[in-house]
Amino acid sequence: MTLLKHVFLLLVTIAVANAEFCDMIKPDLPDSCNCTEGSTSLNMSCTVDMLDVDTIGFSANLAPCGKPASLTLRVTEADEGIDWSTQYDSGESGEVPVPDLSIDVPIFGSAGVYAVYEIDGDASALGIALGLDACGTVLGITKCGSSVTSELPIILLNNTYKFDSFCNGKN
Question: Cα(121)–Cα(160) distance, rounded to whole angstroms?
Answer without folding.
Answer: 9
